[in-house]
Design goal:
27% of the residues lie in helices and 40% in strands. By secondary structure, the chain is an alpha+beta fold. It has a single domain (10-154), classed as 2-Layer Sandwich (Alpha-D-Glucose-1,6-Bisphosphate, Chain A, domain 4), CATH 3.30.530. A 7-stranded antiparallel β-sheet has the order 1-9-8-5-4-3-2. The chain has a two-stranded antiparallel sheet with strand order 6-7. Helix 2 packs across helix 4 (138-154). The longest helix is centred in the C-terminal third of the chain and has 17 residues, at 138-154.
Length: 157
């Protein structure tokens, strides 16, 4: 498990009251991911979700029924099915260097007596990048999407 460095990293964590496989499936299924990946009322479109090391992870967003614009262009670094996803926007699919990447995300899922412990860590190369990400609303944004994810998987029958 990655240790969070307060100077460089940010983290959100939540207990999701659903089995880990249901949370995992909501992450790796493009249709399900689109439902929770971006804070509502923004709309998400999953362009590419190739969940394997080197695979592309590309999403777009639309606001107020406007045109879709780029949201995330990233590359999966590591995938351990049901347990961990690591991606970065410092690379694009196929390990191509990105122009303006600044974060690596580590998503971990572990069993919890009430369901799944979901942990999302955002690692930055500098304190300035961490502060910028926090000022852009990291806790509200990432916290909101984790709540949306929980809503999607906790209500499934």
């Amino acid at each position: 498990m990655q240790t969070v460095t307060a100077e460089l990293d940010l983290e959100v964590s939540r207990i999701i009251k659903a089995p880990r496989d249901r949370v995992w499936n909501a992450w790796v299924d493009p249709e399900r991911l689109a439902k929770w990946w971006i804070p509502h009322p923004l709309i998400c479109r999953v362009v590419s979700l190739d969940v394997r090391p080197g695979g592309a992870f590309v999403t777009e967003m639309s606001e107020n029924d406007g045109p879709f614009v780029p949201h995330l262009s990233a590359c999966f670094l590591d995938v351990l099915p049901g347990e961990r996803i690591i991606y970065t926007n410092a690379l694009t699919g196929g390990w191509r260097p990105a122009e303006n990447g600044f974060v690596t995300a580590i998503i971990t899922l572990s069993d919890h007596p009430e369901g799944t412990h979901y942990r999302a860590q955002a690692l930055h190369k500098s304190r300035a990048d961490r502060e910028k990400h926090e000022e852009l609303g990291f806790h509200d944004g990432w916290g909101t999407v984790v709540a949306q994810l929980a809503e999607c998987v906790e209500t499934k029958t």
